[in-house]
Design goal:
By secondary structure, the protein is an alpha/beta fold. The protein contains ten helices and 15 strands. It has a domain of 197 residues: Glutathione S-transferase Yfyf (Class Pi), Chain A, domain 2, CATH 1.20.1050. Strand 1 and strand 2 form a beta hairpin.
Amino acid sequence: MIVEHLSLKDFRNYAEAELELEPGPNVLVGRNGQGKTNLAEAIAYLATLGSHRVSADAPLVREGQDAAFVRARLRHGERKVILELQINKQGSNRARIGGSPVRANELPRYAQVVLFAPEDLQIVRGNPGERRRFADQLLVQRTPRMAAVLADYDRTLRQRTTLLKSARARGMKASQLSTLDVWDDKLVALGSEIIDARTRLAQDLAGPVARAYAGVAGADHRPELAWTLTIHGADPEEGDEMDRGGEGETAAQFRAALEQKRSQEPDRGLTLVGPPRDDLLLKVRGLPVKGYASHGESWSVALALRLASAELLRAESPGGDPILILDDVFAELDADRRARLAGVVADYEQVIVTAAVSADVPEPLRANAVRIEQGRILGALADHPFGPDAGAGDE
């Protein structure tokens, strides 16, 4: 799969933009703050329905405007499709596929993108929400219908939380909330599907993560990943990482865990078990990455997670390779890891690299380099030459 053409209107710092991309490597070069990452972000949004930098859509819309527009022409072999997305500051986003209106959550069926950025270090070093976000975005790409399941779960959870807060305000106990069972039924049905899908994802990523880690780090530090689940008694959000396991189907475990915590929930005003409180535990050398891994090991794990995601999507997708985006990555890596990473990604159908300094990008990936300046696409570097140190530094 490749992006042949990207059009933007009122997206981030772009009033308008037209970008032609080629098969194989493409490099977007420009000083920090010029807009090269915004182009990568727009492409990735079509596949993940979210930004890798912000959790809300409003920052994606150019200042003073109500909506941003993203249009991309994708090619799958001989087949081409045009995806269009209107990102609204307020209200639901709107989408079209081949000119026909669709729900926005249909877009990942046609666009598969894996983006790695410096922010991904937070997947391994940040709070559990960062790891849940990584997993859920990959779930949506792997199984697009999961976007609706996750959205339905969030709506159900909000309704249940509203009920619990109302009970707390009125001094009611859980036993007095007759409607809580209705929300519990919905929560269990949707939450069990999410937990099972996340568990399968971790199992399927295990092999690709180990291979990708060895490929980038040049060492086998035995990377591992597994979910720590609140339905098994753990509470990662409270610092408890012990997963004591359990027997029986996920739904039965979920329901039993809800019943066990029910008496505490009105006092806390929130739901104490379920997918939004679970965590993806990452290890190297038998130790948790968070708190024990070196900086280099943490980078290698974060890279391995994204490269493993690409490998998984590549193996499962009839549309060919996912589009692989490396956003401001090479400046953070030493020369050995740069070369190793370039070797790992070189055979993907399309790789999009952003860099402040073109010399940071290994030679095999420097084809089709384009200069970006102040929200404008100025064309190939051959037409706008500057030295290897040009473009360095923040503005």
